[in-house]
TrEMBL record:
Gene3D superfamilies: P-loop containing nucleotide triphosphate hydrolases. It comes from Legionella waltersii. GO terms for molecular function: ATP binding. This is Transposase/IS protein. It comes from the Bacteria. Residues 6-118 form the IstB-like ATP-binding domain. It holds the Pfam family IstB_IS21.
Length: 125
């Protein structure tokens, strides 16, 4: 069994998929991502999804559904994810695949980046 993971910010994923459509490598890229055992998608909800983004994301999540693990990070509360997708029908389809059998881990406390910045500032003073 091949072990592996792929990390990508969601806005960068959509940009990469758009480029792949233009250069003809879209199908191959989707297949590669679908076969990745663990896909880590960072920054859910940072940017609005276009119609093309929504359809690409549904395709990707559907290909991975019940075959591979997908980890999504977001500062946006899960209760707002549906609205952030921007299309009720596609939102239902995407979230049905993401939420079914999901394990939700909610982190609380200060940002690690904020804590790191404060430590650096204290050292400099």
């Amino acid at each position: 069994m091949k072990l592996g993971a792929r990390y990508i910010r969601l806005p960068k994923l959509f940009q990469t998929l758009d480029i792949a459509k233009a250069d003809g490598s879209y199908t191959k890229l989707l297949e590669q991502i679908a076969k990745t055992p663990l896909l880590v998608l960072d920054d859910w909800g940072v940017a609005q999804m276009t119609d093309s983004n929504r359809r690409d994301f549904l395709e990707l999540i559907d290909d991975r559904y019940q075959h591979s693990s997908t980890l999504i990070t977001s500062q946006l509360p899960v209760s707002l994810w549906h609205d952030s997708i921007g299309d009720a029908t596609l939102g239902d389809a995407i979230l049905d695949r993401l939420i079914h059998n999901a394990h939700r881990i909610e982190l609380t406390g200060d940002s690690m980046r904020k804590n790191k910045t404060q430590k650096v500032e204290k050292k400099e003073n």
